[in-house]
Design goal:
167 residues, alpha+beta, 5-stranded antiparallel beta sheet, two-stranded antiparallel sheet, elongated, PMP22/EMP/MP20/Claudin, PMP-22/EMP/MP20-like, membrane, transmembrane
Length: 167
């Protein structure tokens, strides 16, 4: 149980770092054809000059879903920290809360990344654009979120149930 909680907490923390770096950097798409132009969720930079990214609907949706994912993941990390103190409310334990919020964070992240990928794949397939490291970092964060959620679910299942039944 302790091993699952530690793996879950480390995975959640790594996922949060990867997610924040991916969201805040602007190397989601890089255009190698017209000089080095790169864009993220917030701005487009070309030859050292950066401008604010126009608010297309898919960009707004991706931003919102990734921010919600970050909030869920933060709550999952807090729940994960509580799991070391055997915190529970009835049969609802801290590892279970962490697992639920991490699964929710992963779902929001997968939906947000799918929207972005679906709307920009034509630029990658037909032009000189390529996805870059910020984009891939968010996908890696998804894997860490799912791993953490499963680890916390295993910790919950290994935890004895609170209450008089365990006496």
């Amino acid at each position: 149980m302790l091993c699952n909680n530690v793996v879950g907490l480390l995975g959640s923390c790594l996922s949060l770092v990867f997610l924040l770096v991916g969201i805040l950097t602007d190397y989601w798409l890089v255009d190698f054809g017209t000089g080095l132009t790169h864009e993220g969720l917030w701005q487009i930079c070309s030859k050292g000059d950066c401008i604010k990214l126009p608010g297309a609907e898919y960009i707004e949706a991706t931003r919102a879903l990734l921010i919600i994912s970050t909030a869920c993941l933060t709550f999952g990390i807090l729940s994960s920290c509580l799991s070391f103190n055997n915190f529970s409310v009835g049969k609802f334990t801290a590892p279970l809360m962490a697992s639920i919020t991490e699964f929710a964070a992963a779902i929001f992240l997968i939906i947000g990344m799918s929207i972005y990928t679906g709307e920009t794949c034509f630029m990658v397939n037909t032009g000189s654009f390529n996805y870059e490291w910020s984009f891939y970092l968010c996908w890696v964060a998804t894997l860490f979120q799912l791993t953490s959620a499963v680890s916390h679910l295993l910790a919950h299942r290994a935890n004895p149930l609170p209450g008089y039944e365990s006496v």
